[in-house]
Predict the structure.
Amino acid sequence: MRDYPLGTKHPDIDLIQLGLIRAGYDPGTIDSIFGPRTQTALAHFRADRDLPATPAITRVDWRALVPFLVGYVRRRIQPGDTFFALANRFRTTVAAIEAANPDAAPDALQPGHMLTIPLGFPVVPTNVHFTSRALFYTLKGLTVRYPHIRQERIGKSLGGLDLPVLLFGFGDHAVSYNAAHHGNEWITTPVLLKFLEDYAHAQSTGGQIGNLDAAALYATTTLHLIPMVCPDGVDIATGALDSGPFYEYATLLAEHYPHIPFPDGWKANARGVDINLQYPASWEQAKEIKFAQGFTRPGPRDYVGRSALSEPESRAMYDYTLRHEFALTLSYHSQGQVIYWQYLDYLPPNSREIGEVFAQLSGYALEDTPFASGHAGYRDWFIQHFNRPGYTIEVGRGVNPLPISQFDKIYADNQAMLAMGLIISA
């Protein structure tokens, strides 16, 4: 983590501002800028904690703000501690403490033992640029606050970042949701993560998600959630990656496509390959179409790569899917408020009917996939290989990257569909 002087504009500043807000200070609007108001809020935060006053945001500040990014603190039990007293002290709930400490006996707390104390706000931020760093803090918070969420890794990105998968549930019925195959479609990542947080909360408290019983879903279905398929691309598109060899390479590639805004228009991975044009489902046809459109070399978007599965991100998704043979997949993209349900003439059983249910729940249009964009995608390959329902969900409306201000509507449109996806193909 580097230092940030006053005046810096960077998506990391979003996280500083988010942490300050959660800690009870007012940096103003989350805007990625380390300006005077954020500086004043940070000064008050430091003074209350006896931290050194410096002109820049430093590693000391980051460490102090981490609990407000992951959403929990660790506390050694003291004599007289109870869940109720701790909940009042940390402005949280007894249910949240119980969920984070499933092995603790509330009536027999042992002094000296450690407890996880969730803080009184949701972990998943829905008002920041969702970079790989935001993902890191969010996953740490979710898996500690809800220990039943298991985190694994399906592989690594070209730039060496982990490609995490979150598993929730223990049923034999398995489904998979993925987001951010494209860098500038990063808004889809918090959509899936907020759903998982709401689902885990409902499961731990005996509640519902999307009008369905969360405990019953948890018992019958295992959800495999890949929140960010292309983290290098996300970091380029958001501006989080703004130096180093991968950034310099991306800048050079973007010069060959001056009509595509940089970095906002970046969809590809760090090698300039579009990950959702990498799967072995008419890859040669996709290449012919994209080359005819002028995408003949690595760049911000629509370059299919040297061959199918040439990139570590697509290979990781392919291998992981083969190991699990999901009953259904949802691939989250933006934008258009559309659900694409079929691939060529492949018609998996009940796929149209399931798509109609999804359309009704979300208010999105169920449409056939346009031929020019209907090849070499993850959903295309999944349908072709397994003959099972797979869907591309295009959230929101506008120009990518969609503004985070659309998040609340996007999530409201999609929560019930995400819940229904857990059981509808069983």
